[in-house]
Design a protein that fits this description.
heterotrimer; A alpha/beta (263); B mainly alpha (290); C mainly alpha (315); A: 263 residues; alpha/beta; Rossmann fold; 2 domains; 6-stranded mixed sheet; 42% helix; B: 290 residues; mainly alpha
Amino acid sequence: MTILEAENLGISFGGLRAVDGVSFAVAAGEVFSIIGPNGAGKTTLFNLVTGIYRAGRNGRIRIAGEDVTSLGPHLLVRRGMARTFQNLQIFFRMTALENVMVGCHLSEKTSFLADLFGWPTVARQNRATRERALALMERLGLAQYARAEAGSLPYGVLKRLEIARALATEPKVLLLDEPAAGCNAVETEVLDRLIADIAKSGVAVVLIEHDMKLVMKISDRVLVLTHGRRLAEGAPAVVRNDAGVISAYLGDAGATEANRAHG
Amino acid sequence: MSEFLQLVFSGLTVGAVYALVALGFTLVYNASDVINFAQGDFVMIGGMGTVFLAAAGFSLPLATLIAILAAVVVGLLLHRLAVEPARGASPVTLIMITIGASIFIKGVAQLVFDKQFHSLPPFSGADPISIGGASFLPQSLWVIGGTLAILIALWLFLEKTLLGKALLATAANRLAALLVGINVRVVLALAFAVSAAIGAVAGILVTPITLTRYDVGTLFALKGFAAAMVGGMGHPVGAVAGGLLIGLMEAFGAGYVSSTYKDAVAFVMILVVLFAMPQGLFGRRSLERV
Amino acid sequence: MLAAVVTSRLATLLFLALVIAVVPVLAPSSFYLRVASLVWIFALAALGLTILMGYAGQVSLGHAGFLGIGAYAVAVGPARLGLDPLLSFFLGAALCGLVAYAVGKPILRLKGYYLAIATLGFGLIVALVLHSEAAVTGGPDGIQVARITLFGWRISGATTWYWVTAGALMIGAALALNIAASPSGRTLRALHDSEVAATGVGVDVAARKLAAFVVSAVYAGVAGGLLALMNGFITPETASFMHSIELVAMVIIGGTGSVLGAVVGSAFLTVLPQALTILQEYEQAVLGLLIMVFMIFLPAGIVSSLKRFVLDRAP
């Protein structure tokens, strides 16, 4: 079943067409990767999809069939869209556990007034949220860091913490912006399994990643962007051998070389 | 018609002063990302300093010169003792530091000077000049002319001197400036010194018209800041345009609506501009990077 | 163990109650009690700012405006509209909430310096109105405030007011601590750290900021009402820019985000001028200097720095 449909998205920054008429669709349980050289517009595309930038006049975004094009970012989360960020966006002065607890806030049933007057429901809600967050951290191998202040944790852990926080919103579609950047081989390995696991649970995963080994291994389909446009789309094996993709990454001379190497 | 012209004159006169204060804000803001709330107090130091030095027997030109130097010294001390030690602090902390500095300067000013209103004699007579049925004081010409002179001098300094270019470079990109060997600390101190001097000159020019007291800095700072913001924070041309605009709006507000709420005009302007075009009249729109 | 005590909610309230109970024993003169009452009142206003600035990270340089609205409500209500003083007091607090809602909705979209200036402008306009509309507010000379009677009991005298203001502070502190430990408090602290990430997990950042702003305005309104009732007289000075700055300084000097910090900050800036009355000439210079020194050398504030000091040495 198709969860996320993006149609004809585009945006310009001061005359530069950063993303130009890109469309794609992702199904439940699928890992869909977006690759391309630096500056190809990958993160901009994420920002368009998640409502941080407004999609152009002809752009359309649907989640599970519902048109959500004009919704603000926080409302998209309610519709089942969650994301992580290329540059870490962690609540640094909160504990790791609290970071994930904030992720649970959509399912919390207290009001600002109830919180102010400290109704008994608040304590119950706090307990429920804490348990849910802890369970999630357990699943992502983060339980040992629960009480630590997020600002003191290493980079690789924070990358996973962002994923845990995003998962806490119980998304139908999860957008991961370079989750493996800055991670060592072991951490990447863990991440690899984690992403596969998330997809298996029925979440549509959209992935921006530079680690080609990771991308080729876990993706069901790959979209290649250059200069804000779609260059190719298809199964990893197909994209890997696409002449246009090779020349975009390596330049024309490189493409000739690659051809010769393939023999 | 004559009333309209009258209001334009008075609006441009105060507006020119706001423009100068806004320009001081802009210089410091561009170089250091700090909003200096004590900017208005330089205006006070210029005015009060000249008044008291003149009363002590100094000739007017010498008194103005010393007053400007005094403001520059205060500006340098402010940078060295209050802003520099807190580099990298949050905007709120920096705001509170410069507000603290402003309160401190006022506190010291009421000890050094007094708590009375003071004035200076107009530079070239008090006989109003009349044009088209409206009359204005010769001092207004001094204010507007002085503002123009400062603008030209500042432009020459920034575009034609090495030090000025270093200032511009630092404003554009501090790290890059550091890497090409610019002494950023000196440049930041320079920005404070120049903006203090500009503020003091504004204070001296306007004192014969509006009187001065130890605490006039607050309103000048607020309106100068409003002008800088309306023009687009960090944009010198915008600061001048914003200053003149707020001066005019204030004059028209006082003339046609109510002089009681004249001081509210600047803030209503800020709100209107910020909501209609959040980056100000001249500022460029920027998207949040994620 | 020590760490748990230092950070616990109940411990904070008990400590505050202890201090409140001890002051009348140590300093039984009505002058000291009046000064202490002022400390509690301004601490209440500072607590509101603690929720706004400390939790949610949004600055307001115009909160004395709400202090003024709350104060003038209890003066103007009975004097011009013939309302009951107690009713006026609650209406004043409600009015503060309403005004904060109307003003905050557009203003809170702004950030950093822009928000600071916009709130400052709001405070200035309130002060200007109180100054200028003399027919209603009595103008620059101020206005008399009717004494309040509760069930036939006239509330007056330093001791009575001491306990009334202390009670109000205790309630305010309990509510502020409630918020901190709740789901709403978590979202406020989250958006303080990263608005992008908070939005990214579905937090309605604008609505949360507005809620914090409204609550903090009601705190200030209640404090203003108490101030006017206790003093029996009020001037537009209550809503002045200097007053707004003092409120923010209380929060920062005490320790941003800390409930006890707001009380310590209020005590610091309320007691100090009383001590300086002998040197009245120097009051402004000293205040400015203090703000600068604290901001530069102890930006975390007294209470947070002390807490850190204790926690770092806790086993």
